[in-house]
């Protein structure tokens, strides 16, 4: 069978040293990596299990008003932390719209950032994929690419990053804390994932052995709590990746948008911050025409990478709808099924 | 009583809980892959990465080097070991005529090209990943419209095929007051039963035991015997529990003979559990179809002309077809009918039966067209069905044995609240959600096949019934037990039911919704014979009569061939051949079960995602043996129908003729959140012409028509008619 080395270091420093070797990979919950190994897509020769590293599973509300989320905090624990969900409702909403309850119980914050694309050609070892085998070509171009990228893609790769969680994080200026052999560094999440260019095999800026230890939200991220939503549209009601999603966060003052934050999911190799749209919104009243103008700005650079032109118009509409939802105010409770019609059907059972 | 266990109405049996339910929910039920065998080797398949061409060489060095690898079978060392399989539709048993590991030729993507055997599953998998295959690749044909696709008329591909027709369609359509002329399509779908395709083979001298989930243990026994060139008497197939089948486990697939020869070659039992993605290519699937529908009607809604032309994809070598025009041409009163079916050969694995094989795609097209016609006529779609309802099929004028279609429409529409519908598309709205209501007819032919059974009664008041029928999750164990309990006056828990073993008396394939009718009939016959031997006492005195005889047990073996199949079909059953009869194939009558389905959809006004908050189906299928299992079957069918409309489609890379979304993350089936309120109404019906017990069978009825009801509801919500399934956001945005 496929043999590999399994290490369970006691400290972060040991972990970083162990993972700096070529062929090493970190193992957290393994909800993606283990499948990749079973399918013959990833072949790590060494797994560095970080699940027992001390101090990485803490959620800290910082004195300056920011919050620091340890890399090993489980998705479900974070989403259901009442203080966190109240301060960052769009993040909780995004977490709860991802995967299934079982996966959310296992999956970690760091692992969510590190998950690979869901491009079917990446998973099919008989297909050409530059992300899996650099230089092999891209069978997704010209293949089945209905759900592929419409922003930031290149001829060498049209895959998307599948995360929900990262979308509101990017909108709220999250920072990734990284530990490496040279010590600790910080990278804005917006710059953490790489666009494919000519090196689609590189998903992120992480170097050999570098470990995500935490994700930090700055104090300003909490000021949107009253007007923050995550809207995910998918081909079935639950347990599916987004066709397109959007996180919208507004600071509303006297009926006007003082500041807007907007990011899109399912459209690019990274969670896509839409700064041009934010500028359009600043200082305006959240009226339908304005929201549509912001949506146009958000997708101004978009172009289809195949038979997915519909995603561009869909993304515009999702942006407009997410902004309208945010403008209407964060609901008292995050709906069990975000964006489901069933919530409005009297007497209907709700499943998550 | 509850929604899941409805109160029986006239001609319905009680909602007995499944007698195998406890075993299943406690994990004690042994599915074939769970059966332990001594010292097994594990098999892992290597499948073709190209769809057309030839293997030029294997490089097995790295694979053989994986510790624990025992052997690797390829055509180079296995050629000739498996005899040429005969395709089931040509009178054989096999799902495909493609001969396993016979030559270097590649017929389709995902074809089995090697079998790796190792001491552990993990070693076999790793070695399989290390098998290097060199090919000469030719450009494959994936589906309709692709270069190299060859179209063949069904009647040329299969001499027995007939395209139903009557009157003069061309003239009637030309002069019709209102006309509809449209095209519809349905995608490739895969069964994706939860249980994977698993086979364990163990030899004891000349005797082979096969543990494999099967819808036809006698068929598999005889099919493998043919492929191995051995006497069927030397093969036993055990398939006690089946984790979903839906048609995919009905015929003999290539893997079984390969596992058998591997086990013989290595002198050890061999266990194979194919992966989810391999299941897409080593078994069958529902092929994509196209339909051209033309309907002509008078202003009052009376149909005057109907033409249904269908096209179905199949593999290069096999002429598989479902030909649902046999049903659609007979559904309504229309005097002028023309039909035509063609098959289109491509470089694909051979398709096969999948729940309601003909009716699901063909009735989708007809029932969509009927809804479009109703719009053109400004007529309520239920009224259009009523106007064209008939007790005689139009092609030969044969009488329906019973047809409660309009009763189903009435009961379902009342429960649904159809009278509150505003027919104007886009007129019903709840906030940001556009509401649409649609309906459609469901139907499925009523079949019966020859069957046999043995029933034994002992003086301590216990009975045991043996028949090689199958419970594919449908409730067969329970309803057979109910027949014995009722006939012999015993409590249900005193009846032991043995199924799924080729050493039991033969029973037909679990397909065509025939099993309840076929097997309950013969089991009742065996029970009646026992009663007769005891002088036909009433149930309360049966045990006393038995004790008076002083026998340790009384046993009866019964055979039944009645109500359609010819007498010669009974001996053929012992050889694993299926000869069922019914539907539109009988000389003196036509027999179908019917239903009516109503669906509400909600479409978001802006982002256009489609959700189904509620659906109501009413069904009449003669004698209902058990309202709980019937309800469950119909509900499952409706859920699948919703899936067909909105979710399920196997995507094919057109360049590579390779399935793309061959996993449960990307092949979407509804999750709990997609199915909200779903009401199943059982409508009372009596029909003793179909068989003595009056059973019509309903396993496949529930998912017929549902997709059309959803599509019709989407039109009502949005004013947009989408004719190509599945209907997704893409089609409603522009």
Outline the structure in words.
The complex is a heterodimer of chains A (352) and B (734). Helix content of chain A is 27%, strand content 18%. Chain A is an alpha+beta fold and 352 residues long. Among the domains of chain A are: 1-54, Uridine Diphospho-n-acetylenolpyruvylglucosamine Reductase, domain 2; 226-328, Enolase-like, domain 1. In chain A, a hairpin with a 6-residue loop joins β11 (256-265) and β12. With 734 residues, chain B is α+β, with helices and mostly antiparallel strands. Chain B folds into three domains: 1-30 and 358-446 and 583-734, Aldehyde Oxidoreductase, domain 4 (2-Layer Sandwich), CATH 3.30.365.10; 34-353, Aldehyde Oxidoreductase, domain 3 (Alpha-Beta Complex), CATH 3.90.1170; 448-581, 2-Layer Sandwich (Aldehyde Oxidoreductase, domain 4), CATH 3.30.365. In chain B, 26% of the residues lie in helices and 24% in strands. In chain B, the strands form seven sheets. Chain B has a seven-stranded mixed sheet with strand order 3-5-1-12-9-10-11, sandwiched between helices. In chain B, strands 7-15-14-13-8 form a five-stranded mixed sheet. Chain B has a five-stranded mixed sheet with strand order 16-17-24-25-28, with helices on both faces. In chain B, β13 and β14 form a beta hairpin. In chain B, α11 (359-377) packs parallel to α19. The radius of gyration of chain B is 26 Å and the shape is globular.
């Amino acid at each position: 069978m496929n043999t590999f080395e399994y290490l369970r270091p006691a400290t972060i420093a040991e972990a970083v040293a162990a993972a700096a070797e070529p062929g090493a990979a970190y193992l957290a919950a393994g909800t993606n990596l283990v499948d990749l190994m079973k399918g013959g897509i990833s072949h790590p020769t060494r797994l560095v299990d970080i699940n027992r590293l001390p101090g990485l599973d803490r959620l800290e509300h910082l004195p300056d008003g920011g919050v620091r989320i340890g890399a090993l905090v489980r998705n479900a624990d974070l989403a259901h932390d009442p203080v966190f969900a109240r301060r960052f409702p769009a993040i909780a909403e995004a977490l709860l719209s991802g995967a299934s309850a079982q996966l959310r119980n296992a999956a970690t914050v760091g692992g969510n950032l590190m998950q690979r694309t869901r491009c079917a050609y990446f998973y099919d070892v008989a297909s050409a994929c530059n992300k899996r085998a650099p230089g092999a070509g891209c069978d997704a171009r010209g293949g089945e690419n209905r759900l592929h990228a419409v922003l930031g893609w290149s001829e060498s790769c049209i895959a998307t990053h599948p995360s929900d969680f990262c979308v509101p994080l990017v909108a709220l200026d999250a920072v990734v804390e990284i530990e490496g052999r040279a010590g600790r560094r910080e990278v804005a999440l917006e710059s953490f994932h790489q666009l494919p260019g000519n090196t689609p095999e590189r998903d992120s800026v992480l170097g050999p052995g570098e470990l995500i230890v935490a994700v930090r939200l700055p104090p300003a991220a909490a000021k949107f709590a009253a007007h923050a939503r995550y809207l995910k549209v998918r081909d079935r009601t639950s347990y599916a990746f987004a066709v397109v999603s959007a996180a919208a966060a507004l600071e509303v003052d006297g009926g006007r948008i003082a500041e807007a934050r907007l990011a899109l999911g399912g459209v690019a190799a990274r969670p896509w911050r839409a700064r041009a749209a934010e500028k359009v919104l600043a200082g305006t009243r959240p009226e339908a025409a304005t929201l549509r103008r912001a949506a146009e700005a958000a997708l101004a650079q978009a172009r289809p990478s195949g038979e997915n032109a519909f995603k561009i118009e869909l993304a515009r509409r999702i942006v407009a709808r997410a902004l309208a939802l945010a403008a209407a105010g964060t609901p008292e409770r995050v709906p069990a099924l975000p964006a489901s019609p069933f919530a409005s059907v009297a007497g209907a059972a709700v499943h998550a | 009583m509850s929604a899941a266990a409805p109160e029986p109405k006239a001609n319905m049996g009680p909602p007995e809980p499944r007698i195998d339910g406890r075993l299943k929910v406690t994990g004690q039920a042994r599915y074939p892959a769970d059966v332990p065998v001594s010292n097994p080797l594990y098999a892992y398949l290597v499948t073709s990465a190209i769809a057309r061409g030839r293997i030029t060489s294997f490089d097995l060095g790295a694979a053989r080097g994986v510790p624990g690898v025992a052997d690797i079978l390829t055509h180079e060392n296995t050629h000739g070991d498996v005899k040429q399989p005969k395709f089931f539709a040509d009178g054989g048993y096999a799902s495909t005529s493609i001969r396993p590991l016979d030559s270097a030729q590649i017929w389709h993507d995902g074809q089995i090209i090697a079998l790796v055997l190792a001491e552990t599953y993990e070693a076999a998998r790793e070695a399989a990943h290390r098998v290097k295959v060199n090919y000469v690749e030719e450009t494959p044909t994936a589906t309709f419209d692709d270069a190299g696709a060859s179209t063949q008329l069904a009647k040329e591909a299969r001499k027995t095929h007939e395209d139903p027709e009557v009157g003069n369609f061309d003239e009637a359509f030309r002069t019709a007051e209102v006309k509809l002329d449209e095209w519809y399509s349905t995608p490739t779908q895969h069964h994706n039963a939860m249980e994977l395709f698993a086979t364990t083979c163990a030899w004891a001298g000349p005797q082979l035991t096969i543990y494999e989930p099967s819808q036809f243990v006698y068929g598999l026994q005889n099919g493998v015997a043919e492929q191995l060139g051995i006497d069927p008497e030397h093969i036993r197939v055990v398939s006690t529990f089946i984790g979903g089948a839906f048609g995919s486990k009905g015929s003999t697939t290539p893997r079984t003979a390969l596992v058998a020869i591997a086990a013989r070659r290595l002198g050890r039992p061999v266990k194979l559990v194919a992966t989810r993605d391999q299941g897409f290519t080593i078994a069958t699937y529902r092929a994509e179809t196209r339909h051209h529908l033309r309907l002509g009607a008078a202003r009052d809604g009376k149909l005057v002309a109907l033409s249904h032309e269908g096209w179905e994809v199949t593999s290069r070598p096999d002429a598989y077809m479902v030909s649902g025009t046999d049903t659609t041409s007979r559904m309504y009163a229309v005097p002028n009918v023309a039909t035509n079916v063609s098959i289109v050969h491509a470089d694909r694995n051979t398709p096969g039966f999948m729940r309601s094989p003909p009716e699901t795609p063909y009735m989708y097209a007809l029932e969509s067209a009927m809804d479009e016609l109703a719009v053109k006529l400004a007529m309520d779609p239920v009224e259009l069905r009523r106007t064209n309802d008939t007790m005689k099929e139009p092609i030969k004028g044969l009488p329906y044995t019973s047809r409660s279609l309009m009763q189903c429409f009435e009961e379902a529409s009342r429960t649904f609240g159809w009278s509150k519908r505003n027919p104007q598309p886009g007129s019903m709205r709840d906030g940001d959600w556009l509401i649409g209501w649609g309906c459609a007819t469901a139907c499925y032919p009523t079949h019966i096949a020859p069957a046999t059974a043995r029933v034994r009664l002992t003086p301590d008041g216990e009975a045991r019934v043996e028949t090689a029928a199958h419970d594919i999750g449908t409730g067969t164990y329970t309803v057979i037990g109910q027949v014995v309990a009722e006939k012999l006056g015993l409590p249900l828990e005193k009846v032991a039911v043995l199924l799924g073993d080729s050493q039991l008396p033969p029973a037909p394939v679990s397909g065509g919704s025939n099993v309840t009718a076929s097997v309950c009939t013969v089991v009742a016959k065996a029970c009646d014979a026992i009663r007769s031997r005891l002088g036909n006492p009433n149930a309360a005195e049966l045990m006393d009569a038995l004790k008076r005889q002083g026998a340790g047990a009384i046993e009866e073996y019964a055979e039944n061939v009645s109500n359609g199949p010819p007498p010669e079909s009974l001996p053929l059953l012992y050889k694993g051949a299926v000869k069922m009869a019914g539907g539109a194939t009988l000389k003196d009558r036509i027999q179908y079960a019917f239903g009516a389905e109503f669906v509400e959809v909600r479409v978001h006004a802006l982002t256009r995602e489609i959700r189904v908050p509620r659906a109501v189906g009413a069904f009449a299928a003669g004698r209902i043996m058990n309202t709980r299992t019937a309800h469950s079957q119909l509900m499952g069918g409706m859920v699948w129908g919703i899936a067909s409309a909105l979710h399920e489609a196997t995507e094919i890379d057109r360049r590579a003729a390779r399935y793309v979304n061959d996993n449960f993350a990307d092949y979407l089936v509804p999750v709990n959140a997609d199915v909200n309120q779903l009401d199943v109404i059982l409508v009372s019906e009596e029909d003793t012409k179909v068989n003595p017990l009056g059973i019509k069978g309903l396993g496949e009825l529930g998912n017929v028509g549902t997709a059309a009801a959803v599509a019709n509801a989407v039109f009502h919500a949005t004013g947009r008619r989408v004719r190509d399934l599945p209907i997704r956001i893409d089609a409603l945005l522009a």
